[in-house]
Here is the input.
Amino acid sequence: MSVDSARISELRRRVQTDPSSIAFAQLGEELRRAGANEEAIDVCQSGLARHPGYLSARVTLGRALLELGQLDDAHVELTVVVASAGDNLAAIRGLAEIHQRRGELADALIYYRRALELARHDPELEETVERMEKQVAPQTAADTDLSVEALFDFDRLVEQLGAETPPGVEAIDAVPASSAPVIAPLIGESGDHTADDMFAQLEAGLRDHDERAAAARRELLVEMTPPDAEALAELEHWLESLRSSPR
Here is the structure.
């Protein structure tokens, strides 16, 4: 598209005649809309050097930089705008797009929601927010789905404390076949046990495993030196409290 329209020509003439004229902001925006982003950037940067508080020109600059893929520079300009005018919809949407292009979907969603609050019932924004919520939700669930066992490594703790593991304790999490719940035969039986019986036996086997593990840890406490034993006892108490707390 040609940028040499009558409107642009007139604005360009005014700015050239008076470099301090605030008409630079209008010229920059007209150039950006016409696709002349590089010239728009030059015009806005020159004008902002004289009028740094002209936020609409800074929005134009940020959006032109965004169009050219200069995301970091665009982020700087639009952040300045939002810091001064938190309800500037164009700047907020620009920041949302920047984060989206970077793959920072959670941050992008924050800005898209903020934009939707300012432009309620905007079908494009509503669709964008709904789509991104579906993309972000699985990531959030995966990041927060941590069990107590994943957070607490008992064997690593013992190693860090410098304790020598007593015989038989090093395989505490690998329960011998003789003491582990016999699952496969139960599932394979044709009709000797009901489902309730099977689960009851499985639960009993798992409980027995936990009791054996607790006993082995108590033996470990006895073998350790008093300072180390006291520290491990406190951590063991903490672990038990986490396991017994409601989930």
User: Anything to note?
Assistant: The chain has 13 helices and no strands.
